[in-house]
Amino acid sequence: MNQLTRFTPSEVEALGRDRNFLRDQSEWLCPSCGEVSVRTYLRNTKHANRPAVISYTWCAACRKMTGSTSPLPPGLTISDPWRELDPVAWEQFDTSLPKLFARLDRLWEDGVLPQSIVWTR
Length: 121
Ligand SMILES: [Zn+2]
Description:
Elements: E1 5-6, H1 9-18, E2 28-29, E3 36-47, E4 50-59, E5 64-71, E6 76-78, H2 81-85, H3 87-91, H4 97-109, E7 117-119
Parallel strand pairs: 1-5
Antiparallel strand pairs: 2-3, 3-4, 4-5, 6-7
Bound molecules: zinc ion.
Zinc ion is lined by residues 30, 32-33, 35, 37, 59, 61-62, 64.
């Protein structure tokens, strides 16, 4: 169960169609295993010098994941309590994907995640 695999393109499509994490941060039905265990973490970044957001979506039950980077929608503020809690681990987030998702699961179980998302428009 610790092996990470990727959601298939049709599973990613199903998630994108049915779920809007920016509006609803609760766990979601997994299109692969059927558990309500899909979680997302958003990370502020820059892409080509513009504000962007990396999104990691994974299932805590079957360990499937997907990630993407997109422009930060105007007016969106994403809190990142992990960064404040543990800046060193936060900086080293991309050294190992299995470690990253294990960490994100712990943060979720500890109530640090999901993060709060605020629209200021
Ligand atoms: Zn699953």
